[in-house]
Amino acid sequence: MVVIGNGMAGARLAGDARLRHADITVFGAEPRPPYNRVLLSGVLSGTTRASQLTMPLPEGVRTRLGVKVTAIDRAARQVVAEDGSRSPYDVCVLATGSEPIMPPMPGIELTVPFRTLDDCEHILARARGVRDAVVIGGGLLGIEAARGLAMRGIRVTVVHLASHLMERQLDAQGGEILAQTLAGLGITVHVGVSVAAVEPARVVLADGTAIEAGLAIASCGVRPVTSLARAAGLAVERGVVVDDLLRTSDPAVYAIGECAQHRGVTYGLVGPCWEQAEALAAHLTGEPLRYRGSRIVTRLKAPNLEVASLGDVHVNGETVTFSHPVAGVYRKLVIRDRRLAGAILLGRSDAVGTLTQLYDRQSEVPAARESLLFPELAAGGDGPGLAALAGTATICQCNAVSKSRIRTAWLAGAGTAAAVSRETRAGTGCGTCLPAIESLIGSFEDSLTPVAEAG
Fold it and tell me: Nearest 5 degrees, angle CA 398-CA 224-CA 12?
């Protein structure tokens, strides 16, 4: 098997235990081992070391790092690399990911994208001695980049074309409260404006406003990398078209991750990428498993910024909201046919786990809707917490790791969150569940602590 792409989807497939006896060659355009792109914002802020992002592949997997694939010879079933070498395959997997969109504006070449570890290192090098920075784009990555730079003492301005921040994941009210929260963290936000030009020391808006910027970051979205598939004659729309087995129009070629388009949808989050990798590994080893699509759960990962968005928050349906702008709190449920269709949670909340479970399982929501927004109140105090969750409750959404699986690992000797991560992969995606894992370990230990009898 040849895997083209050494990112999070390709590396996850190559490292799947079900394929440990397979003959696998992985091509990676970047000259470094696979790493967790989700945690790049931590590198930018200085809370995570670049070495902590590495995702090692199992022994036996051949890697060709820094080698680009230039063509797929479908007739000969060979992959052609830029050095002229040819690698035969019985199964070829496209995991080419996506690339940043760089808008065609004057001076765009002066900006730095925020997509890879090289980009991150470039940004940090450029940020030395800089007092002001502008982030063009107020989506998920743009806000993470802005918060990372702000934590390094840089004055940051976010410029966003849409009418509110994170318009895909938030409604207008949620976007406004998020902007207020960012302002409290020293980040200025301009929405509903476009950039006319980027100049060496400033960014000029369409209305003529000039913003000082010793550093400009472009975070204007991404597009699937499909050129290789298109040149090979495979069916391509926005992404490489695949069926429920992740097959392309050539049954010997598959596609997973951000480059794949399944049932008309392309995904830009790690969860669906990993679900596709696991589904393909199952299929290739004879398991009767088909990929049916993924439920979207988005988490913003930055210190003092807690944002979660589930499903479609713009769909029509029964809505339940709570807003406290001064505290930076906003919670919204969208319910259709007595099931959760979407949810927004801004600010610290114990409701994320419960809502995610309801959304994933599409269970009926309780009649007391407020119990979903405020589980601690419904419990009559501080709430039962993680210790009261059922064993089947999913703690790590990225890797679908349940509470019972974490407990099993703990009973087997995994006494720290890091040890649990090594055993179960929990916490190795976006990392937002690590505090929950630590809390669970504490509850497991407390349950074994003997209680002294009064006497």
Answer: 35
Cα gap 56→33, rounded to integer Å = 7
Q: Is the pLDDT of residue 237 over 90?
A: yes
| Strands 394-396, 86-88: pairing kind | unpaired
The sheet with strand 25-28 has its strands ordered as 62-65, 25-28, 2-4, 92-94, 253-255
Question: Of 165, 163, 164, 169, whose CA–CA distance to 146 is shortest?
Answer: 165
DSSP state of 17: G
**Spatial distance between the Cα atoms of 203 and 261, rounded to a whole number of angstroms:** 35
Spell out a b/e string for 46-58, using b for 16 or more CB atoms within 10 Å of the CB, else e: eebebeebebebe
Place of tokens 């944002």: 307
Cα radius of gyration (the chain)? 23
Task: List pLDDT tens digits, range 175-192.
Answer: 999 999 999 999 999 999
Identify which of 53, 65, 346 has the alpha carbon closest to the alpha carbon of residue 179.
346
Distance in angstroms (rounded) separating the CA atoms of residues 345 and 314 = 14
Q: Report the C-alpha gap between 290 and 283 in whole angstroms.
A: 7
CA atoms within 13 A on the CB side of 122: 14
Whether this prediction's pTM lies above 0.70 is answered by yes
**DSSP string for 356-408:** HHHHHHTPBPPS-THHHH-HHHHTTSS---GGGS-TT-EEETTTTEEHHHHHH
